[in-house]
Design goal:
The structure is a single chain. With 479 residues, this protein is an alpha+beta fold. The protein folds into three domains: 105 residues, Ubiquitin-like (UB roll); 117 residues, Acyl-CoA Binding Protein (Up-down Bundle), CATH 1.20.80; 138 residues, PH-domain like. It is 29% helix and 20% strand. The protein is built from twelve helices and 15 strands. The strands form four sheets. Strands 11-12-13-14-15 form a five-stranded antiparallel β-sheet, with helices on one face. The protein has a four-stranded mixed β-sheet with strand order 1-5-4-6. Helix 6 packs across helix 11. The chain is globular. The chain starts with a strand and ends in a 31-residue tail after the last strand.
Length: 479
């Protein structure tokens, strides 16, 4: 599954022309050929619930108009109206809509969007149906979210965060997912259950209702015996019970629902990719011999106002996390049949004690969409901070290092950015496991450390002081 936001200011990712009238009308917003009279519309929420509306003029209604009705139905206060947005979603693609978009028309163009931005087969595309969802606005700052105190609003944000935790979209460490699982249990079932009631409820609803699926289900397979699985499940139950007891005994009186919701969301805020829009792509696996060459690894790419995060789909951990001040980027279109769309990420690294520039290739038909998304986030964040380059929100796992004196003018960037550190947490980057291209600038020309790459592509000029472009010389061209 991949996500994004189309037709953003400052990019050229626009929707394709409206499709012909013989396209099937799919999804929750298209139910009748007669669109002038009142039609039933379902707006889905996280947590298996939906808002049921009766809408007139469905064919031309905009997101802005629909938003007023949904906020009224959900009793969302004016102070929180920017916290949510409409998304058009399916198992193949997720797109955040702008206020001027008309959901019904976009549903009619869904197949065109899937052909353009996914690698799905024709059969999958023909059977895919989008639905309209009301969920967190990816451009809503976490600092504002911390100030929200309406229980209904917090519950909506909680249900979305919980879904992302349980599905592994937000990778987290055991101390996080165990604590979040206990909070989730207390929110759903109350904080005053005894051990027997707790165990009975857990076994009725299953651990996967409170812990990430890959944790609750375990590795499985032929080598995992039933007894081993049972023992592991019992251990998880006991650990979850221990965390739950901390909640129930931490205060003289049971905590209020808003306290638990705030605590859950605040824990999620420590994850750097909380609130990201997600895209799907692949990266090259490190070569481990002749037979390993050419293989790729599936990755999720999360992009938010803080930076870019590349995550291993299978292993549920971060491969690379960068603030915008730590990266340069660009995208390239296929030059020949069989080539891929590529998003290029450039960042500072180290090889054998030598500071180097590293390039990561992300193969994805959404490369152009991701590039425009990054540019929009950079400009939005720069404007909100008044051009300040410092990010003090505390979500990133790497710590900037002091610039070296002899690096102060390299690449015209005013000093090298902080090196990435290898750590054991799933949240921290694993640069050592990436197949990157590395090179150094010796003051006159760029010296190649790995095989040649394609022609110059880092030509983007900085539009804000929070990131910089790499100036590539002709010495990097394939000769």
């Amino acid at each position: 599954m991949s996500t994004g936001r189309l037709e953003m200011e400052g990019d050229d990712c626009s929707f394709p022309p409206d499709s012909s009238d013989d396209h099937s009308q799919r999804g929750s917003v298209a139910s009748s050929a007669t669109l002038s009279r009142a039609q039933d519309v379902l707006i889905y929420l996280f947590g298996d619930s939906a808002v049921h509306l009766s809408v007139e003029g469905l064919g031309s209604i905009t997101v802005q108009e629909l938003g007023r009705s949904v906020r009224e139905a959900l009793h969302i206060p004016e102070s929180a109206q920017d916290a949510f947005a409409f998304w058009l979603c399916s198992p193949l693609l997720e797109l955040q809509l702008k206020v001027r978009h008309q959901p019904y028309k976009l549903c009619r163009q869904w197949q065109d969007l899937l052909y353009r931005f996914t690698e799905a087969s024709e059969e999958d595309i023909s059977q895919d149906e989008p639905f309209l969802q009301y969920r967190r606005n990816v451009f809503y700052p976490k600092s504002k979210e911390l100030q929200l105190d309406d229980e209904g609003v917090l519950k909506l944000l909680y249900e979305e965060a919980r879904s992302n935790i349980l599905t592994g979209r937000y990778p987290c460490d055991p101390e996080h997912w165990m604590g979040l699982g206990a909070l989730s249990f207390a929110i759903d079932e109350g904080s005053s259950l005894d051990s027997q009631q707790f165990t009975s409820t857990i076994r009725e609803k299953k651990l996967s209702s409170f812990l990430p699926a890959h944790v609750a289900m375990g590795g499985g397979g032929l080598l995992s015996t039933l007894r081993g699985k049972s023992s592991r499940q019992a251990g998880l139950e006991q650990n979850l019970l221990g965390e739950y007891r901390k909640i129930s005994t931490s205060a003289a009186s049971p905590p209020e629902p808003t306290q638990l919701l705030h605590q859950y969301l605040n824990t999620c805020h420590t994850l750097p990719y909380y609130g990201c829009a997600f895209f799907f792509g692949e990266i090259d696996k490190p070569a481990q011999g002749i037979l390993q060459r050419g293989k790729r690894k599936a990755v999720n790419i999360g992009i938010c106002l803080e930076g870019v995060y590349v995550m291993d789909v299978k292993e549920k951990h971060v491969l690379l996390g960068l603030r915008f001040s730590e990266l340069s980027w660009d995208h390239s279109h296929p030059e020949e049949e069989g080539d891929s769309h590529i998003l290029w990420l450039e960042f500072d690294g180290e090889e054998d004690g030598t500071p180097v520039n590293k390039l990561l290739k992300i193969y994805s038909k959404q490369a152009e969409l991701m590039s425009g998304f990054i540019e929009f986030c950079v400009e939005l964040k720069s404007a909100s901070e008044g051009g300040a380059a410092a990010d003090t929100d505390g979500e990133v796992s790497q710590s900037p290092q002091p610039a070296r004196k002899d690096d102060s003018n390299k690449n015209g960037r005013g000093g090298r950015r902080g090196m990435l550190h290898r750590q054991s947490s799933v949240v921290c980057s694993r640069v050592h496991s990436l197949n990157t291209i590395s090179y150094v600038d010796n003051g006159k020309e760029i010296k190649r450390l790995k095989p040649k790459r394609a022609a110059s592509f880092f030509t983007r000029q900085a539009s804000a002081p929070t990131y910089s472009a790499v100036q590539v010389t002709e010495s990097l061209e394939q000769g």
